[in-house]
Task: inverse folding
């Protein structure tokens, strides 16, 4: 009688163990390893730290199951940050937040014909020129990507013109202005943005040929560029879309 009762209890416990192993394996997406498998220490552990994975080791007679278990009830769900938290996110005047390598990777990934080294060079110049005038270089760089199609160009402006924002382009037949080198072309872009967004003093001598035609300080945000910088009513939204991609895809 005692022997049969003991055997029933053992079989129930054994069944529970196998059910636990099965559930942990299926729900956790774990793997099965032999007890003697190299690289798998047979020590038992259960650990949880912050948002890291809880690893549960369940041992049976001839195999061991390691599985990651995400106990969502132990911590709050983390909302994915699409854009950084800061005031006046879409304000043209302000401080950029991204690194030159992040900008360069974004440009290179969307146009592999532009070498990574050249992309880094362009990104660094954008950061330097924008910071000198107090312009948000994240926005300026996003606008450059829109205007040039990530330096594919393809419109009336040619790559050798160093015109990164379509300055002087009125229609599909006008080529717009040309600049001696990359830095001057980027400087003209930054100066034109500042002309629209601020009445402040310029740090460098004016190289933007259309600077004098802009009503100083007439717009403040990206959306206000539509109808002034470009006739496209969705112009600002397109820049915001690229800016959002920059922040989401940042490395």
Result:
């Amino acid at each position: 009688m005692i022997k049969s009762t003991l055997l029933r209890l053992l079989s129930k416990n054994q069944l529970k163990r196998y059910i636990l192993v099965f559930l942990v394996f299926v729900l956790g997406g774990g793997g099965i390893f032999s007890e003697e498998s190299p690289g798998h220490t047979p020590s038992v552990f259960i650990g949880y730290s912050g948002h890291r994975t809880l690893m549960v080791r369940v041992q049976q007679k001839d195999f061991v199951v390691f599985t990651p278990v995400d106990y969502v009830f132990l911590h709050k769900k983390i909302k994915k940050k699409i854009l950084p938290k800061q005031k006046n996110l879409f304000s043209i005047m302000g401080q950029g937040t991204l690194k030159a390598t992040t900008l360069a990777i974004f440009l290179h990934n969307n146009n592999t014909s532009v070498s990574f080294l050249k992309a880094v060079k362009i990104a660094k110049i954008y950061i330097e020129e924008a910071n000198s005038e107090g312009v948000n270089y994240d926005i300026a760089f996003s606008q450059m990507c829109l205007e040039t199609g990530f330096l594919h160009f393809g419109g009336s402006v040619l790559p050798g013109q160093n015109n990164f924002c379509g300055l002087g382009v009125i229609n599909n037949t006008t080529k717009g202005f040309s600049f001696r080198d990359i830095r001057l072309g980027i400087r003209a872009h930054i100066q034109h943005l500042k002309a629209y967004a601020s009445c402040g003093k310029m740090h460098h001598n004016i190289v933007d040929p259309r600077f004098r035609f802009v009503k100083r300080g007439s717009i403040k945000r990206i959306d206000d560029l539509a109808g002034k910088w470009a006739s496209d009513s969705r112009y600002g939204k397109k820049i915001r879309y690229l800016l959002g991609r920059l922040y989401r895809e940042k490395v």
Notes: Residues 30-79, 81-86 have pLDDT under 50 and may be disordered. DSSP finds six helices and four strands in the chain.
